[in-house]
Each structure stands twice: as C-alpha cells, then as structure tokens.
C-alpha cells in the first residue's frame, strides 16, 4: 500500500531537527572506520529534507522493524523526530566501540613495547658477556658439583635447576625456586667436623669452665669414650634440669669446646608455632625453613652441639604444638630422616648432639620427656659459690668494668657475706649482679682518683650494697606452739616454709589459707585425721577435735604452694597446737605422710638441704629412704647439719616436739 508523504510547514523547530540529524550523522561517520569520509560531504550537500531523512535512515545500523516504522510514518516532521532518537542510540554505541578499541590498542601497544624492550635488554646483556640469570644458574651448577648430596636431595636440586632455566627472571615463582635451591646448596650435606677424642683435654676444659657438676662431666666423658672406641654412634638427647643461673646453657658451650664441635643455641621460650620447627610450605608468602634447618645452615656443620634452651617454656595454640613437632627431632631412632616442609626432603640430624635445658621437668610434654636423658643439676652450696666467684665471676666483672689490673682482693669471708646477706638463690646470677655493682663503685673511685682499698671489708660492702637484704634471725626466734618449719622445692631452688596452726572455739572444722594447692590441702586433712585417730597415744583430749576449730596458714600467701612434701611439717604443727608442746628450734623437716602413719620419701632433697644450711638450720627430719640423696651431697657442704631419718609419724613427733 503506497503512503502519501505529508510535508509539514517548515519552521524554526523543524530546521533545528534537520541540523541535528546532519551533525549526528556526521559524528557517526567520523567514529565509524568502515564508513567512507566522503559520506559526510554528500550529507552536507543534500538540500531536500525528505531525501536527507531517507538517505540517513537507509544507512542506519538499526533493526529492520525500526526502519519499517520510519517508512510507515507519513509526517516528515514525526519521521525526523524518530530518526533523531535512533541516531542518538547509534552515536552512543559508536562512541563506546571507539573507546573500547582505543583502550585495547593502548594495552596491546604497552605489551609490545615491553616485549621489544626486554629483547633489546637481553641483546645488550649478551653483548656484555651473558645474562646475569644464566650466570647465576651456571654458578649454582658449579657449586652443586662439590656437594655430597643424598640421592633424594640431588634429584630435588636437578628438578629445581631445570625449572629455573625455563623461567623468566620477572615471573613471581622465580625467586621462590631460586631461594629453595640456594638453601639446598647452603646446607652442609654430610659435612662433619672432626671430634676431639682427647678425654684428658676435654676434662680439663670442662673443669676450667665450670666448678662442680661432677655427674654431668662424667656423663660427657662417658659419651666421648664410647665415641672414641666405636667411632660412630647415635647421639643421645641430654636434658639438663635445674634452677636458673646455675650454668646449664654455658655448660653446652663448654661441651662443644671440649669435643671440638661447632656450637649453636636455639631459644624455645614462648615458641607456639609448629612451623618454627618444621618450616613452612615454600608456596606461602614469606615461607622459611624451620629453626633446626636454619641453625644447621648458619653453622655449616651437620654434627654441631645444639642447645635447645628453655624446652619447658614451649607453648601451643591454634597454629599447632611445637612440642609434638620436636618428637621427631629428639628421637635418635627417627631424626636420621627429619623432614622439613620448606626443604621438601629428609635431612640427617642423627649426628647432632642435642642438649635441652629446662627449669621444671613437669612442664615438658610427657612424650617428649620420654625421649630425653634427664640429668638433674642441683643448686650450689655457699662453698661452691665462693669458688665460682673467685674463679669466674670476679675476674669477669673486673674485665667488664675496665679493672683488669686492679689489685683489690676479696677474701672468702667477704664473698660468703655477700652470698648470705645479699642473695637468696640456687644459681649465681644475682651474685654476679652484686659483684657488678661493687665493680661499678670501684670503677668510679678509680676514675675520680680516690683511694681504692687493697682488700674489701664489711664496711665497704655495706656502703656499696646497703644494709643486709636477708637475715636468718627469723629462724632463731623461739616460736609458740603450733609453728613448724618445713623445706620446700621450687623451680628456682630450695626454700624455707613456715606452717602456722591456731586453735579457736568452734565446731572442729579445718580452715586452710596461704594459696595452697589440692595436694597440700589433702596433706593437712590427712595429718588431722591421723591425729584424731591416735589422740590417745599423743595424750590429746579427743573433745578438742569437736570443740575447737583449727586454722592452718602458710605465710607468703601470694605465692602458690603445692606438693606432698609439707605432710610431716603439717602433722608436727597440728600436734604442737593440740598438745601445747613447742617445736624444737633450728629444726626443719620434709616428707609425705599416709593415714597409716608412714613417712614417704620426697624429691629435691639437695636444694632443700642447701636452703636449710643457708637459713642457719641445725637439724633436719627426713624419710629413711632419702638417706641415699644425702650421701650424694659433698659432706663439706653440709657440715654442722644433723639428720634424723624416720619411718613412722610417731618418730617425727618424738624428735620434733619438746617436753612441756
């Protein structure tokens, strides 16, 4: 059906429509690379408005139905309006296409530019004598020829080097592979230092570095003797347990020096990430090998003496349990094939002499404790501390304070005074600090050109260190009935413990104070029950148990206390309170009790006895089975102490309580 075209009256608005159509069509032609530029010239020369609209419409990229719609409109003005809308859509589409094309072209140009620059750089490097990455790979291959690889390590290295050769230096994985190969090359595979089997020389070094510690020195010499005769053996895992400041860590250094091995120390205190021992997977960002492998790499020897310091201070959290990770390291049957996650192959640790140190053996993981050869290091007696001060501490502090040529002497009596009046410890760390304070004061006198004494005296010591910090007077005062002195073990050494008992009107209930643990509370209950059951034997009025309330207190209430060692002390304090008989002065005791009236042995005897000696105690009550522990102590250190060995509670009370 043929439509008649209705030509509207041409006014200013219609002229604007036609002008806009021409402008938009011109812009689309400019933005469309497939349209010839001559089309814009033709567009400008068309005078007939109807022909212009038909010309533009026929060249539109619109859909067929939209073009059909244009044809069906009779009014030229209405057709012009619709065409203008379609042109706007077409123009937006053309602009978007042009923007995308320009961006893609820019990205492609940058890639091409980078590629050409890389090629030019490569050519320049080749002219200058080869690519630095190629040189690095060649250097690695050269180093690998001298290594005593295991088959697994050799295969791992060869795979890594092949991968590195295929990689470009700018790829992210290049540094990961390079660092892994660098670790493989740095590790001392099957490289060992030669052990010195001169036992006399080793004994001399150990004696010079540490005074006392005869059992430990004996154990090291036994190990060397076996090594000398057999030539090769799996190294034992020794664990030195004892209070702080007695030289556990420095003993490890002396052992390394005595047998001619390299020494490395690993501090495990506060460690709570399993990856610190086993390493991280190398794919992680910032991945590193474990501390064991790092230490071996640093020391350049596969058989060093490795100190695992503070093994009892290891923690555990959501990142794993390092104690469990150490099980493989510290098992002589397994550590020949220790697997590090970063290294990705096995490493032989069987020749490493591991020495662990700890203050408290109870805090070590039970499975880990089973793999260790525990060697107890007791605290030092006053006599031992005097020798240590003369041989080591005073010369060291003189050297440290620029007084190496100073002639001032310290007599045994003065050193003993410093030990007894200014320190309360099993080790010598606090004593070392006191000597440092004395040397600082002497250094000031020397610098000010004042008179320096030829020998230290009590007056000078008090002037420098102040009045006595500790006194034994508290143990010399006569105590009322109900007070007994016990001996306690702490991880910092032995200690003296007062146990006070008081009776008051009540219903026979037992009150315990002093921050006591469950075991200690049970000891008090056991002692009270024993007394109730045997009241007649000890001439105690049985009515007192129902009419009097008893309160047991252990002073220094802020300090937690636990353990069975205070059993006989609690029994003595309770018996003293109920009978009104005082406890013998200068007497201390330690031992566990049972309801049957038996006295059982306890541990930490040497520390407890040395604490008693320091405090001026003259008599000690112990279980008969602890007599063997007393025999292990040098008789010179316990001179003046009298020991009572008991089997039954009645023997304890006969010895401890005075007659009325």
Mean pLDDT: 81
Radius of gyration: 45 Å
Strand content: 5-15%
| First-to-last CA distance | 143 Å
Q: Kindly state the percentage of residues in helix.
A: 40-55%
**Spatial strand arrangement across the major sheet:** 2-3-6-1-7
Would you identify the regions where 5 or more consecutive residues have pLDDT less than 50?
none
Summarize the main sheet: 5 strands, parallel
Count helical runs: 26
Short description:
The protein contains 26 helices and 16 strands.
What does this structure look like?
This protein has 660 residues and is an alpha/beta fold. The chain contains 26 helices and 16 strands. The model has no long low-confidence stretch (mean pLDDT 81).
What keywords describe this structure?
single chain, 660 residues, alpha/beta, five-stranded parallel sheet, four-stranded mixed sheet, 26 helices, 16 strands, elongated
Secondary-structure blueprint of this entry?
Blueprint lengths: L11 H20 L6 H8 L3 H10 L5 H9 L3 H53 L3 H13 L6 H16 L5 H15 L12 H11 L4 H17 L7 E4 L6 H12 L3 E5 L7 H4 L12 H9 L5 E5 L12 H8 L8 E3 L4 E3 L5 E6 L7 H5 L2 E4 L5 H19 L11 H11 L6 H19 L10 H8 L7 H4 L6 E8 L2 E13 L4 E4 L4 H16 L10 H4 E6 L13 H13 L7 E3 L2 E2 L5 E2 L4 H10 L4 E5 L3 H5 L10 E5 L2 H8 L4
Parallel strand pairs: 1-6, 1-7, 2-3, 3-6, 10-11, 12-15, 15-16
Antiparallel strand pairs: 4-5, 8-9, 9-11, 13-14
């Amino acid at each position: 059906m043929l439509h008649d075209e209705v030509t509207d009256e041409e006014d200013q608005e219609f002229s604007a429509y036609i002008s806009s159509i021409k402008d938009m069509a011109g812009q689309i032609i400019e933005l469309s690379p497939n349209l010839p530029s001559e089309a814009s010239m033709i567009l400008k020369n068309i005078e007939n408005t109807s022909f212009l609209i038909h010309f533009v419409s026929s060249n539109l990229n619109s859909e067929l139905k939209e073009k059909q719609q244009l044809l069906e409109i009779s009014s030229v003005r209405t057709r012009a309006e619709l065409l203008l809308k379609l042109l706007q859509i077409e123009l937006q589409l053309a602009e978007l296409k042009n923007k995308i094309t320009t961006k893609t072209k820019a990205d492609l140009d940058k890639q091409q530019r980078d590629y050409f620059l890389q090629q030019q750089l490569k050519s320049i490097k080749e002219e200058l004598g080869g690519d630095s990455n190629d040189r690095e790979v060649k250097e690695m291959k050269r180093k690998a020829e001298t290594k005593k690889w295991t088959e697994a390590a050799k295969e791992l290295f060869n795979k890594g080097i092949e991968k590195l050769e295929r990689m470009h230096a700018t790829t992210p994985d290049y540094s990961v592979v390079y660092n892994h190969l660098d670790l493989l090359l740095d590790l001392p595979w099957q490289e060992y230092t030669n052990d010195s089997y001169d036992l006399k020389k080793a004994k001399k070094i150990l004696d010079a570095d540490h005074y006392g510690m005869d059992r430990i020195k004996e154990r090291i010499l036994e190990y060397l003797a076996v090594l000398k005769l057999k030539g090769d053996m799996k190294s034992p895992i020794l664990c030195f347990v004892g209070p702080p400041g007695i030289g556990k860590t420095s003993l490890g250094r002396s052992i390394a020096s005595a047998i001619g091995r390299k020494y490395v120390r690993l501090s495990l205190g506060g460690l709570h990430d399993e990856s610190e021992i086993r390493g991280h997977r190398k794919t992680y960002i910032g991945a590193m090998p474990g501390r064991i492998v790092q230490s071996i790499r640093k020391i350049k020897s596969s058989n060093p003496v490795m100190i695992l310091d503070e093994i009892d201070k290891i923690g555990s959290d959501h990142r794993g349990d390092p104690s469990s990770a150490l099980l493989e390291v510290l098992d002589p049957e397994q550590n020949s094939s220790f697997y590090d996650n970063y290294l990705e192959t096995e490493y032989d640790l069987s020749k490493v002499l591991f020495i662990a140190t700890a203050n408290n053996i109870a805090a070590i993981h039970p499975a880990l404790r089973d793999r260790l050869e525990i060697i107890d290091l007791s605290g030092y007696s006053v006599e031992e501390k005097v020798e240590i001060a003369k041989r080591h501490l005073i010369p060291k502090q003189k050297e440290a304070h620029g007084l190496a040529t100073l002639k001032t002497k310290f007599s045994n009596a003065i050193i003993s005074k410093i030990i007894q009046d200014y320190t309360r410890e099993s080790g010598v760390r606090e004593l070392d600090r006191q000597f440092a304070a004395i040397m600082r004061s002497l250094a000031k006198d020397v610098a000010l050109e004042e008179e320096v004494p030829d020998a230290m005296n009590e007056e000078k010591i008090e002037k420098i260190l102040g009045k006595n910090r500790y006194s034994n007077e508290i143990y010399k005062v006569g105590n009322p009935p109900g007070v007994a002195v016990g001996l306690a073990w702490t991880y910092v050494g032995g200690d003296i413990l007062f146990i006070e008992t008081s009776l008051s009107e009540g219903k026979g209930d037992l009150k315990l104070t002093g921050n006591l643990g469950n075991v200690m509370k049970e000891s008090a209950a056991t002692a009270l029950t024993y007394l109730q059951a045997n009241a007649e034997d000890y001439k105690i009025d049985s009515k007192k148990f129902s009419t009097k309330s008893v309160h047991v207190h252990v002073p220094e209430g802020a300090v937690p206390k636990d353990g069975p060692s205070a059993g006989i002390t609690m029994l003595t304090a309770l018996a003293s309170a109920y009978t009104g008989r005082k406890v013998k002065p200068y007497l201390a005791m330690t031992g566990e009790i049972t309801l049957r009236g038996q006295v059982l042995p306890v541990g930490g005897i040497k520390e407890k006895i040395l604490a008693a000696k320091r405090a001026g105690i003259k008599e000690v009550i112990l279980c008969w089975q602890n007599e063997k522990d007393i025999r292990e102590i040098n008789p010179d250190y316990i001179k003046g102490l009298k020991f009572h060995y008991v089997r039954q509670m009645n023997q304890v009370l006969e010895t401890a309580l005075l007659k009325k």
